[in-house]
Amino acid sequence: MQDMKNTTWKPHLLALSILGAGSLASDAAINSVTSFNNAGGSFAYQSSLSTAGTLVDAVNFGTSANIVANGITFTGNASGNPSGANYAVTGAASVDNGLSNPGIDDLFFTEAWGNATVPTLTVSNLNPGSTYLIQILHGEPRSCCTATWTGNTVATNVDAAQNVPSFNIGNGVNGQNPPGANDIAIVTAEVTGVTSFTYAATGGNGRGGSLAGFQTRLIPEPSALGLVGLTLGTLMFRRRRTLRR
User: Which of 48, 84, 161, 210 has the highest local Cβ count within 10 Å?
Assistant: First the structure.
């Protein structure tokens, strides 16, 4: 090992090299996938919308209305097969806007959907050196369509599709306001080292899939930043000891 006393101390270069090494060492992967629904009738569900890191996109499908939930502004997109700078949806040519129920939840109860298709969200322009948190929103305000969704999948440009944990959606009651138990669901995925992410909403129990909205957040890597701080602190301590000698 090279003697630290003979090394030129360049903390800014060291910080860059450690961050770079951390990014390169991270295998491209879907780090985790979870699903949440308000099975207990919890109406604090909006707090399950993450505010971690930095917001990249937040979109509300099926309506032109912008909705603020947990401090996040979800921009309305009323188009079928909606798209934006960093995302695109296929297989969801139709839209519903809360089924015209006044006062209904305009984030979870508006949607883009398809008949005999699989609505698919692709999030693109991701930086492979970064980690992202992606949350997909589902809602069911109708009395007709209680279902267990078991076939939804997530994939990336380097990861094959894998199943999302199953969740229930819908409770057989029409137009509850606020949403009743099982009326809403949130799927959360964390990905690292990828340039694109794909979510396919297959639906379940005879009900077609739909997408109410989504958000993408850039997540800092505390382990790499912590390593930088720890290493710089160690170097400063060693440098002081060297100067005293």
Answer: 210
Under DSSP, the state recorded for 43 is: S
Q: For tokens 């505390």, what's the residue?
A: 222
Tally of domains within the chain: 1
How far apart are alpha carbons 214 and 163 in whole angstroms? Answer: 18
Instruction: Tell me the C-alpha distance between 60 and 81, whole Å.
Output: 13
Give pLDDT tens digits for 187-226.
Answer: 999 999 999 999 999 987 777 899 999 999 999 975 443 4
Strand partners, 190: 32, 133
Task: Give the closest residue to 96 by CA, choosing from 49, 123, 51, 60.
Answer: 60
What domain range is 141 assigned to?
27-244
Long-range (24+ apart) CB contacts under 8 A made by 3-11 are: 4/235, 4/238, 4/239, 4/242, 5/242, 9/235, 9/239, 11/232, 11/235
Contact of 125 with 86, CB cutoff 8 Å:
yes
Specify if 115 maps to a domain.
yes
CA distance 161 to 199: 9
pTM for this model (two decimals): 0.79
| CATH code at position 183 | 2.60.120
Distance CA 139, CA 185 (A): 6
